[in-house]
Structures are given as C-alpha cells and as structure tokens.
C-alpha cells in the first residue's frame, strides 16, 4: 500500500486493517478431522445402541433400546457435532449433501468412516457383553423381519422413519430459516420416537452403519438389504422435498 493510498483511507478502513483476520481452516480441519469425528461418533453411538439391545434382559421391551439410542445420538451430536455435523449415518449424510449442507468431496469419506465406526462400536459391544446374552440378541443385529410377508411393511417403515429423522436433521440443523440450538436433542428424541413406534415392524434401524456393524461382527445378514434401501431412499426423498418445497430461499430450487 502506498503513502497516497494510506492517506485516503477512512477511520473505519484503518480499524478493519488493524483487526486480525480469521485464519482459514487447514486441510486437517477441512477434510480429515470431520471424518475422524464421524468415525468416533459412530463408534460411540453404535456401541451404546448395540449394548442396550444385548443387555435388555429386564423385560422393558423397546423402551431401553429407544432411550439408549436417542440419548446416545443426541449427546454425541452435542459434543462432537461441530467437528463434522454429527451425521453418524450414511442416509443422513446423503440428505445433508442433497440440501447443500455438506461438501460433495466428503460424502464417500463420511460413509467409509461411519461404516468403520459401526464396526468398531459393534465389536466393542461384543467384547463388553456376556457371550450368552450376545448370542441371544444375535449381536444386536436386526432380527425383527422373520419372513418375506413382512418385507413390504418393513421397507415402508424404514423409509418413513428415516424421512422423519432426516427431516429433523436438515430442518433443525442445516436449513437457515428453521435451525434450532436444540437440534441435537430433537434428533435424539426423533430416534427414540421412531424405535418406540416401529421397532416391532423392522427394528427401526434408519441407519445402514448401525445395521452393517453388528451384522458383520455377528455374521447375521438376513434381510440386510432392507436397512440399506429403506434409509437411503428416505434420504433421497427428504432431499428432494426440501429442495423443492420445504427449504429456505437459498435452498429451494423453485418458488423463490
């Protein structure tokens, strides 16, 4: 800057020049740390979820797993969510990307981190629990579907319950017009409500990572595709709904 230019600057310009400029996040904070956040968060969430199912021997029915999953998810998002957005679910990552809440370059790394986190969480639950209980619960893998007659209801249930979850995530934590500081706990309560409502129909997975980890550790793959197709379809539908109708002006593609 020349002396002449300096002389033409206003007081406000001088104040702005004197203030330190915020440093840009480096590659670690932009790309690696968010993936680590998804890995650790998914591991803790799925560990608590699996352990709650395996140790559910007191006749509480779906209440214990529902509360454990919901509380674990809400707390994990509240503590680690600022690192990555707190998805811990490939279907949520898909929905968040579709509504503009995630860099496309992070979608596949997030999915890998979430699946690895699910495997770690399910493995830790296996190590912690007594073998007899673990075996009786099939390692907390989803066993609610026992025949092909249940498939239509299970697939529809997974789609609708996942839509409710992802709608809460996108509207409560991403959409500018409807964001809420209570979003982590709203998301956790949504999971609790879904499990209480639909646990008997499909198990209320809503999360391919939650299905994959226990299935791999326990080697139980029956109807595994339901817990991928249903949640991912729910993510696509919510993304389309928010982009077309429900999102704020910046997000909507129409009716601006």
Automatic annotation (TrEMBL):
Membrane-spanning intervals of the chain: 31-54, 66-88, 151-174, 225-246
Name where it's found.
Endomembrane system
Q: Which InterPro entries match?
A: Aquaporin-like, Aquaporin_8, Aquaporin_transptr, MIP, MIP_CS
Q: How does it sit in the membrane?
A: Multi-pass membrane protein
Q: Which UniProt keywords apply?
A: Membrane, Repeat, Transmembrane, Transmembrane helix, Transport
Coarse class of the protein's main subcellular location: membrane
Stretches of the chain forming a coiled coil according to its record: none
Q: Output the superkingdom of the source species.
A: Eukaryota
Which protein family is named in the record? Answer: Belongs to the MIP/aquaporin (TC 1.A.8) family.
Q: What is this protein called?
A: Aquaporin-8
